[in-house]
Write a structure and sequence with these properties.
By secondary structure, the chain is α/β, with parallel strands linked by helices. It contains nine helices and eight strands. The strands form two sheets. Strands 2-6-1-7-8 form a five-stranded parallel sheet. The protein is globular. 2'-deoxycytidine-5'-monophosphate (DC) binds next to α2, α4 and α8. The site of 2'-deoxycytidine-5'-monophosphate (DC) has 14 residues, from α2, α4 and α8.
């Protein structure tokens, strides 16, 4: 980890509320919020655009190595463009939801994206959310939070957002894969957001950070 910049790692299953919490927390603390899932989604979107079979690992990796991926920041939140196209709503299509966990199980792809995730810390303090942030991306950070919610609550949140997403299936794939599976990192404080509002969850995350030694 960079000596001068701090990383807050927020991990958790799909639709646990971690993106919203990470965004609010980053704004309150004046840090950059990085959505690492968007990177896996961006590659998945491009692979589908190119007509490559998501399960064809060799073809996916070859295409990934040719992609021009630019990770940036706008209004304190990470952005991503692939081959010159800035991606946002494209990242949440049903086809991307359905295939992203397959690509996220390819370790060569993970290595490439983890390097891009770590690069954010070279210039900024960050709140980064994902599945392996506390375990693989920034294992040395003391600031690790795991946000959970019951399966019913998570599925309900996704359909309320109007999104077709196979939350339970993605979680099973993300937790059972060999490469950097979703898990609670050692030292992480777990927050169950099932019966909490966004504000209450952000407050709980702020309290967790203080417990972990965070100082403004
Ligand atoms: O957080 P999200 O739902 O947007 O993430 C999309 C997928 O990307 C998720 O199903 C698993 C994968 N992912 C990952 O493997 N590691 C991360 N750090 C972030 C996301």
């Amino acid at each position: 980890m960079s000596a001068s910049h701090r990383a807050v790692a927020i991990d958790g299953p799909a639709a646990s509320g971690k993106s919203t919490v990470a965004k609010c927390l980053a704004a309150r603390l004046g840090l950059i919020m990085v959505n690492s899932g968007a990177m896996y989604r961006a590659v998945t979107w491009q692979i589908l655009q190119d007509g490559i079979l998501p399960s064809d690992q060799d073809a996916v990796i070859q295409a990934f190595e040719r992609m021009k991926i630019i990770c940036g920041v706008e209004d304190g939140v990470s952005t991503i463009s692939v081959n010159g196209r800035m991606l946002s709503s494209e990242l949440r299509t049903p086809a991307v939801n359905e295939n992203v966990s397959t690509l996220a199980s390819f370790s060569k792809l993970r290595e490439g994206l983890v390097a891009m995730q770590r690069a954010y810390l070279e210039s900024d303090d960050v709140v980064m959310e994902g599945r392996d942030i506390g375990s693989v991306v920034f294992p040395e950070t003391p600031f690790k939070i795991y946000i959970d919610a019951s399966e019913e609550v998570r599925a309900a949140r996704r359909s309320k957002d109007g999104e077709a997403d196979v939350v339970a299936e993605r979680d099973a794939q993300d937790s059972q894969r060999e490469a950097s599976p979703l898990k609670i990192s050692e030292g992480a404080i777990v927050i169950d957001s099932s019966s909490l509002t966004i504000d209450q969850t952000v407050l709980a995350a702020q309290e967790a950070l203080i417990e972990l030694g965070w100082e403004d």
